[in-house]
Amino acid sequence: MLRSKWWSFGFRTTIMLYFIVLIVLPIIGIYTQSFSLGWQPFWDSVTDPLAWNSVLLTIKLSVIATVINVLLGTMIGWVLVRYRFPGRRLLNSLVDLPFALPTAVGGLMILLLLGPNSFVGDIAARFGIEIVFHEPAIVIAMLFVTFPFVIRAIQPLLEELDKSEEEAAYTLGASASRTFMQVIFPTILPGILSGAMLAFSRALAEFGAVVLVAGNIPGKTLIASVYIFGEIESDNPQGAAAVSVLLLTLSFFILWVVNLIQSRRLDK
Hints:
The protein is mainly alpha-helical. It is 81% helix and 0% strand. The longest helix is centred in the first third of the chain and has 34 residues, at 49-82.
């Protein structure tokens, strides 16, 4: 019994130390560094036009990528769970490819596929559409790295959904769209929210894929993560930490809102 208690205590202590060293201390370090020179330098760093524009651009493009991910991810998750077709297992395994592939390789793939010298890029240029080194390329890069989150979040919920509820709705005369909105959608909504939250937070922090395709033009295609990298390269860690704090605080706020929504839903 005593050995079991000591083992349990040691196990919990190890987990807590692991959590503190890898998550808590770095977060504290970022906040400490951002205010290391005082409030005014912090405020000057986050209100710098270049920094502020990079943050706003990052948020705007992350929202666009998240909305697209929610729509496509929900449809893809639905198809993978509800339909059986040749190549389904291969498609299901390819969903996780962005997790295994280095993001820089993903950016290079996008550059080769959609660049000015590529087949798609050439066709787009004929219609006056510029992809690479412009905002569309950033959105595509964000979509690539965040692609699996919504799909993997709603798949278990769809698999656990009791089909008898759908059949009952159809028996009572409900249309397919009404059945989806009133029976299926409320069930998968927590998965959609959590997947969207993860996708948005991941898009905010993306660097490897974006830096290759964005062009990094200040005020136009320079996103926050690349701006932070530039500040570090310019020997301005306080400025880099200040912008990092904005993104980190936004991620915390999103996490809190989603957890609040899900907790209220569970209480009903």
